[in-house]
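dumping this here so i dont lose it
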């Protein structure tokens, strides 16, 4: 879930998506665990099904800086009022990640953001935050599920048409 951009004008309230927002994501993992990730940093909290925190980690990581080109691209098709509001609320950096998945072994795969359409580095961590492995995927590819030795992703082309991609995961024990 991304934070919305909310604009108030008197009694009127307008809402749109904020392209620079930090996601708050929840994923189900194996053994009845719930994983919560806040994209402002590399931070994952792990909970049991009854809501008790049973683990997690946080690591320092600064997302790429937001450039004038990023701002222009984000506001190009945006209403002037939303564009002004967005410019006033801009953070200095992109979030650390926009998505993460938990595989069937409990490894946490974070898609660490890279600058301006560069490949996304998907890094797998164990539940204590130790990096296990990583792979670079094109910026237009988003992992959605990893089961066994297969990773399933959605790739979009220049017209934003989605396609399913299946990758083999090698080198994990």
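and the seq i came up w/
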């Amino acid at each position: 879930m991304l934070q919305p951009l909310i604009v108030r004008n008197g009694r009127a309230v307008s809402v749109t998506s904020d392209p620079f927002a930090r996601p708050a994501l929840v994923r189900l993992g194996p053994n009845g665990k719930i994983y919560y990730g806040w994209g402002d940093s590399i931070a994952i909290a792990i909970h049991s099904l009854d809501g008790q925190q049973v683990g997690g980690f946080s690591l320092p990581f600064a997302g790429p800086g937001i450039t004038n080109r990023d701002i222009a691209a984000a506001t190009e098709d945006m209403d002037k009022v939303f564009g002004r509001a967005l410019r006033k609320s801009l953070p200095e950096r992109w979030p650390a990640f926009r998505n993460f998945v938990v595989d069937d072994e409990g490894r946490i795969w974070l898609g660490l953001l890279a600058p301006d359409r560069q490949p996304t580095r998907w890094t797998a961590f164990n539940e204590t935050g130790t990096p296990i492995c990583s792979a670079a995927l094109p910026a237009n590819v988003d992992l959605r599920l990893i089961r066994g030795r297969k990773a399933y992703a959605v790739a979009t082309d220049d017209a934003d048409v989605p396609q399913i991609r299946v990758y083999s995961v090698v080198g994990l024990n």
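Residues 14-168 form one domain.
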